[in-house]
Every structure is written in structure tokens, then in C-alpha cells.
Amino acid sequence: MKTIDDLERELGGLRGKRVLVRSDLNVPLDRSGGAPRITDDGRVRASVPTLRRLLDAGARVVVTAHLGRPAGAPEEKYSLAPVHARLAELLDGVDVSFCPVTVGGPATAAVEALTDGSLVLLENVRFNAAETSKDAAERGAFADSLAALADAFVSDGFGAVHREHASVYDVATRLPHAAGGLVATEVEVLRRLTSSPERPYAVVLGGSKVSDKLGVIDNLLGSLLTPGDRLLVGGGMVFTFLKAAGHEVGKSLLEEDQLETVRAYVRTAAEKGVEVVLPTDVVAATAFAADAEHSVVPADAIPADRLGLDIGPDSGAAFAAALADARTVFWNGPMGVFEMEPYAHGTRAVAQALVDSRAFSVVGGGDSAAAVRTLGFADEQFGHISTGGGASLEYLEGKQLPGLDVLD
To answer: Pick the catalytic residue: 180, 181, 235, 390?
Structure first.
């Protein structure tokens, strides 16, 4: 993939050039207190180095991004206005403006008003139905409108590169383009995880559903994990594993249709010499609530009237022990409902184990990234925190990612 340095040489310099940047600014917002508040600004902070690189070179930067999943039309709750405010703080000393539309007259005027080293953030690109259209012609027409705003394109929104969307894929076919620093780093990390990882290699999977991880588990057991490596399973998805092993799981989250698939995974792992580590105890509650009655119970004896919401303390210690001598760790998905303090201990135990280990540790974006920050860990304590959970998983599944393919 071409870098910004390559693009700069191709264009004979970036000063005065209009550069359209596809960033990933899809951050969680808390709207309970009136004005929306960003609860995890990790993706905004991760976008800054590439933007600074372009601004310092004198480019006129036009940023496009999405937030949430609007239905192809403007929705106030998905406006990027709160993100604009945080981006302006992080780019202190830079003229950072906001345009309330993505394309059309006001967007053209906002771009024409830019000066060298200034930036405009366009409104949520998904307010336009054509952005995510399955119709290539419709998507292409929208990409033409975006491309008309710029002289070049930089792809830096790793969290969207697994989508064949107009601002991710089609624009790159219409303008001189390059990968931003964030995308380049993410790809380098993922290649390290898939090409020549140091072993033992441990993969920690959590989150709610086994079905969300089928592809990555298939590829892990098919080609990535070798004898002596480990697969640790927690989160809501573990109860399907426990049920598949013959244990009752009470009212815990369960995917009945995946039981045989899970049994096949466990058999394959045993045949390959890959250890599957499951919790031996769980925190089981009477309801999905922080103030519900809860207690630690054996993983094979969850009461019929309770649901598991976290791995237990013995399991946290066992997971930490299984990670202690690992040299490469990929973690995607929290171990429990970390947003509620009574059920955050398992996720905290895994995060602390990664901090304490000598492994190259990769936290696979999404809820995992939010969890470590919420629990007080710093990004620098891990080898890498990905900005794209879905994109990371699809890469580890061995899938082609349109937003990367178009940059090659």
C-alpha cells in the first residue's frame, strides 16, 4: 500500500492540496445527561497523527466519517458535532470547522473556505443512503460527489475497511490514494498475528455470541494455532461451550443452534494439541442488573434461576496463568458485563494478565478496547489496541477486506 510519503511525492507536495481523509470516529456517546458525552475517545485520538501529518505538510484536510447506524438519513443522535468538539481540542492550534452536510453546496463552500493547514469535518457520511448502497452505480455516484471535494484520498478509518462503502472503497478508485498511518499500523500488527507469531500463541475470545466468532475460530483452529497454543473462552459465548460439555447454564445466554459446532471445535482443538481453557466458576445473578443478588458458583452448577454475567475469581486466576508464558496474545471480547462493577472482575483479570506478561498483546477493538479504558488501563500498557473490532476479526478469519484491497 502507498503511504502518505508516497502520495506526497506523487503530487509534488501536499501544500494547498485538498486531501479527503476517511477516518473512523465512531465513538460511544452517553446521552443520559443532556448534551452527548463521548465515553471513549480512543478512535478520535487514534485519528490525530495522520491528520497532523497532513496538516503539518500544508494540506487542506477534509474528513469524512460515520457514527452509529443511521438509516440513510439525518438523525440528530448520530451527528458528528460532539466529535468535532473533541477533535478540535486534540488538534489545538488548528482551524477545525464543521459542515452539517456531507456533499452538496454547503460542503463545497466549506472546502473552498479552507486554507493551508486547516481542516473541515463533514457530517455523518451514513446520513446519505448511497454510502452503504448495494447498488454499485448509486454508490459510485455518491463517491463522485465526495471525490469532487478533493485532489487526493487517504484511507485511515480501519474500523470500516471491511465494508465496501462509497467513502471507504469507491472514492479510492477515483483519486490518487494512500493508506494513513493508522491503517498501515493496523495491517502491520495483523500480519504479525497471522504470518509469524511468536509462540505460545494465546487467543482470548469473549463477548456475547459464539456465532459472531465462528469464522475466526474456524481459521484459528484451521491454520493459525499449533500444538501448545491456547484458546481461552469467556463472556456470554462461554455458556454455549459449557452447555455443549453437558453442563446446565440456567438462564445464561445460550445459542442452542451452535452446540454441535462448538463440540466440533473442542474435538478439533484436542486433535491439534491446542488447549481450550474454559471457566471453572462464574458470577451468577438473579437478573441482568448491577444490584441483583449474585454469587460465585461452579461453572458446572449454575442454578436454574440465575444467569452467568462474568467468569469467577478462580477462572480469572486460571486465565492469567494460561497467559503468563504466552509470547503472542490476541484478545477480542470482554469476559463479562464489565459496564457493571460486580461483573467486571474477569475482564480486569485478563487485562492485568496482559499488562504483566511479556507477550506482544493485541486488544481487538470494539468492546474490548472500551473495557480496558473503562477499567483504568492505559493504551500504552498493551502492545496494540485496535480501532476496528469487526475489521480485525474478519482479517483473522482470512477474509478479503475491500477497503484494504483497493489500496494495494
So the answer is: 390
